Amino acid sequence: MAESAGSQPKFDTRTEVDFVIIGSGAAGGIMARELSMAGYSVVLLEQGPHLQAGDFRHDEWAYDVNNELTWSARQGHPQTFRKSETEEARPVPQALGYAHNVGGSSVHYSGNFWRFRPIDFMEASVKGTIAGTNFADWPISYDELEPYYSRVDWEIGVSGLQGPWDPPRSRDYPCPPMPVKGSDVLLERAARQLGLTAYPAPVAILSQPHNGRPACTHCGFCNGFGCEMNAKSSTMIAMIPQALASGNCELRTGCTAARIDTDDTGRVREVVYWEADGTEQAQRAKAVVLCANGAETPRLLLLSASNRFPDGLANSSGMVGKNLMFNAHCSVVGLFENPVNAFKSVPTTRVVHDYYEIDSSLGFYGGGGIDGRHPSRGAPMGLALRGSLFDGPSWGSEFKRNLGQEFTHTAAFNGHTTSLPLSSNNVSLDPTLKDKWGRPALRCTYMDHPDDIATMKFFHDRCSELMSAAGAIKQTGYYAQNGQNGSVHLLGTCRMGDDPTNSVIDRYHRAHDVPNLYMVDGSSLVTSGRGQPTMTIMALAFRAADNIIQAARRGEI
């Protein structure tokens, strides 16, 4: 029996709860709300603290340098990185970026919320497989996921306006789009000159009060920062409070999962974890839902190897940790004669999706979108530490004069693009480096497919054309022509599929190998989409919860 602690129960670790959910981020927060409100007993494990709006501040040094919101070597969580499996991985502060707090990275994401389109779910059949990749169709369609996209719009909270290239939707957005900001006025004008269409970007930030939460105050500190107004639609504020109010969910913070143990029949029996002071605990459960993100989910499965599962839990396919997709990107920054003030308001307010699918006659696969932003996320210290954007001095009085102009007179047009799934791009366990708990550190192996690099260059060139059309007097640009060295988009590492030989979970997120184990987060994705995956992760979580609840009521878990 659970002992009540206010509305939040206190479950005994040696008595089975219905579900243990590992991770409280974009997917885990939704799973906790849905399962607990359906009447099931839930223990939600989160390795970080439960922060509130009043805990957040405009402190670039704390967040960007000291990594107070993200795991890194500073907190005892080192990682290693290499381009190929023939190289020795080298320690890095953080190649795979993610948060350590209730709500996960949904607390400090940019809130850029694109839906996937129908083509994203069936592109391999339409365009053909690509040699050397694991490019495949999803086992589900856009139409199956669409009702859950609409649930994200309304229950999480999204502001936007249906655009000319957007997929069909069953409901309008609950909140109107954000007012256009300076950089995006320039993008919209330039797009019109070039025969393209820039339209309001959908964002998980409230333009007006919704669901008892206030509207955005346009402070400009969104990307990389927690919202002091609760206007940003994180699961921390939109989902977790309802889970806790249900009386069926116990949130345990400062708890780091060590492994998932199974019984003699191969079913999950318990989750072993450490409390913040190092005390080892083990929570019994009828089922486990792993929502730890696209890096930590495969890592925990690999750490849970046993005699029955020698290559890692649920890994008979060998696909656990494989097919890591980052989403590719590029950026072009322009300097303008008059102030742009792109640091004001939310990260982006306009998007160009004319190149969502690029012409196959170009000879490579890809596609994406272009939006307008500030070159340093609107963060003044971040711009200063980069030095001059346009080859000026990096110190002295001239640098100071340039910095004042560049912060207020620049705009960035950023391309967000596809990544192909490759077995050679993966998350694994480092053989030598350990974290603070003595676990093998995360090792990332990643090199972009040539098509992904070609797509980045294509979008870089389009961004440059737009910047010229916008009237920039100087411009500079970047894309990862030698491959990316990290990302916060961690996708595909426990992919969904109907065939147990080449996927980890089925179309309902149940592990092929373990009937009472589920994976619901970025690791589930089969393709990368065009650069903004969080809305799809959330829609998948709502869908997974519906199916898990139905299966539980049928006695199938």
What are the SSEs and their pairings?
Layout: E1 3-5, E2 8-10, E3 17-22, H1 28-37, E4 42-45, H2 60-65, E5 79-82, E6 90-92, H3 118-127, H4 142-157, H5 182-193, E7 198-200, H6 235-238, H7 240-245, E8 249-252, E9 256-262, E10 268-274, E11 280-290, H8 296-303, E12 328-335, E13 350-352, E14 368-373, H9 380-386, H10 396-409, E15 410-417, E16 426-434, E17 440-445, H11 450-470, E18 474-479, E19 517-519, H12 534-553
Parallel strand pairs: 3-4, 3-11, 4-8, 5-17, 11-19
Antiparallel strand pairs: 1-2, 5-6, 7-13, 9-10, 10-11, 12-15, 12-18, 13-14, 14-15, 16-17
Helix pairs in contact: 1-12, 4-12, 5-11
Mean pLDDT figure: 95
* Beta-strand percentage range: 15-25%
Helix percent reads 10-25%
Uncertain runs are 1-5
Q: Give the radius of gyration.
A: 23 Å
Count the beta strands.
19
Q: Sketch the major β-sheet.
A: 7 strands, mixed
N-C termini distance: 21 Å
| Overall geometric form | globular
The DSSP helix count reads 12
Protein structure class: alpha/beta
Report on this structure.
This protein has 557 residues and is α/β, with parallel strands linked by helices. Helix content is 24%, strand content 19%. It is built from 12 helices and 19 strands. Strands 3, 4, 8, 9, 10, 11 and 19 form a 7-stranded mixed beta sheet that branches. It has a 6-stranded antiparallel beta sheet with strand order 7-13-14-15-12-18. A hairpin with a 7-residue loop joins strand 5 (79-82) and strand 6. Helix 1 (28-37) runs parallel beside helix 12 and helix 4 packs across helix 12. The model is unreliable at 1-5 (pLDDT under 50).
